[in-house]
Amino acid sequence: MAISSALPSPLLLAASLLLLIVQAQGITRHYEFNVQMANATRLCNTKSMVTVNGQCPGPELVAREGDRVVIRVTNNVAHNISLHWHGVRQVRTGWADGPAYITQCPIQTGQSYVYNFTVAGQRGTLWWHAHISWLRATVYGALVILPKLGVPYPFPAPHKEVPVIFGEWWNADTEEVVNQAVQTGGGPNVSDAFTINGLPGPLYNCSAQDTFKLKVKPGKTYMLRLINAALNEELFFAVANHTLTVVEVDAVYVKPFTVDTLVISPGQTTNVLLTAKPYYPGANFYMSAAPYSTARPGTFGNTTVAGILEYENPAMSPSAASFVKGLPLFKPTLPQLNDTDFVTNFTDKLRSLATPEYPAAVPQSVDKRFFFTVGLGTLPCPANMTCQGPNNTQMAASMNNVSFVLPARALLQSHFTGLSSGVYAPDFPVAPLSPFNYTGTPPNNTNVKTGTKLLVLRYNTSVELVMQDTSILGIESHPLHLHGFNFFVIGQGFGNYDAVNDPAKFNLVDPVERNTVGVPAGGWVAIRFLADNPGVWFMHCHLEAHTTWGLRMAWLVLDGSHPNQKLLPPPSDLPKC
User: Fold this and answer.
1) What is the homologous superfamily of the domain 155-352 according to CATH?
2) Do domains 25-150 and 155-352 have the same CATH topology?
3) DSSP 176-237
4) What are 337-370's pLDDT values in tens digits?
5) Are 107 and 85 in contact (CB under 8 A)?
6) Beta pairing, strands 269-275 & 261-264
7) What mean pLDDT do residues 140-168 have?
8) Which of 42, 270, 484, 541 has the largest count of CB atoms under 10 Å?
9) What CATH code would you report for 25-150?
10) How far apart, in whole angstroms, are the C-alpha atoms of residue 362 and residue 357?
11) CB contact at 8 A, 224 and 63
């Protein structure tokens, strides 16, 4: 008997129902991450390094908004390890956030831990990385969250999507690099090269064969999922003779705008649309990245990494050699390495979509206001030791003059079990204890205090935080990352923050929403967020040298009164210290 075309078939109804269920609930995606040593050769130098599944960058995680992600991490190396899913909100699942000694003890050699979380209300480019010592130098990868099934991008769909991950390569073992810096009290040795998707490219010695190449078709649009996984460098990025349309940062859509060059800080992600020329150009084009820094020369790597954008030639078969050596090669012009004006002009263009589909839920009223200084400092040199910091001191960094010391037990477990005595103190200062002219002549005493201090917030507190750079040991930009939350960047400026006049300039309509923001060199940035996620949440500079020196703190957000406002209990396989 023929089924009437006016009535949907049972099979079609079942498929539609299944699609609705998947859209509403998502699916569970399982990944196996084996942390293992692997040999890699770059710059004609071979070394053994820590990797996930023998890869660097590591495996790309792909999920859809609403999916549950389950990653079993097994540690087969001599180092302790923990992994952080950078930018994932982890609502009530702080046990899966990953920073060692903050939300978990690290996974010890021979042990496993299952990270289990749901990606709720987020879509876009994030990333994952090791979150202990400097192991993220080689342990990192992309985390791509696709929109729910059937939900389009709020911009024309690209022909292809390509992760572009910036990293750093040291010929030396990075654990030895950081240990030497800590022992001498000086700055760490800088990296030997930057990389794109693990490859240094043609501008470095012995590396032409290790070049990332992106092959494009004339007239097609490509979405580059840019991720800055470098340890210590903010980067300018451009593609010669092509423009880039910014459509998303930190997995939040923005009002599209087109630039020749962008800036991206460690921890940040940026999605850009690149439209290939409508015809075969008979040329190749460098995709280049180089550092932005206001620090003293010699304290950062000042080199350029390049990949190559090449076009498919309609006159040649697709199987022909992909890179024609005889073609002209164009290079982009990047800003000067200390071009703070360029950085400011770029970040000022970032605006949330603020549409009914993608609203900007900026807290319009504020329950708690905080003011943090962020910057460098010193610690006295221990007796019977010579230190390489200024005037025989140890280099340090702090927030509100507290250089954060990692505890021996994880903070989240200490809080959850009520056994916090001797682990942390809930008295992080809400403002500098000794105010000074923050961006003027620095004080004579540059020493910082040390401690493990948390700032406690009631559930659902709306927070306004101003972070102020200082001139102690030189002004620098500091990319600050907040775990467990997105925040709105409502204002920024230079010099000392003016609590009377500057708030009038705040943008409370369509400010950019992100998880990592640069505190301007010699300036300040203001953010707002709603503390609606119970747990202990790390906040730190994403320049790894500064984090090592103590430019970090943690927020403790208390449980709310309802069951769905409380931290879930820890999983049974939570690692022990």
Assistant:
1) Cupredoxins -  blue copper proteins (2.60.40.420)
2) yes
3) HHHHHHHHHTSPPPPPSEEEETTB--TTSTT-TTS--EEEE-TT-EEEEEEEE--SS-EEEE
4) 999 999 999 999 999 999 999 999 999 999 999 9
5) no
6) unpaired
7) 98
8) 541
9) 2.60.40.420
10) 15
11) no
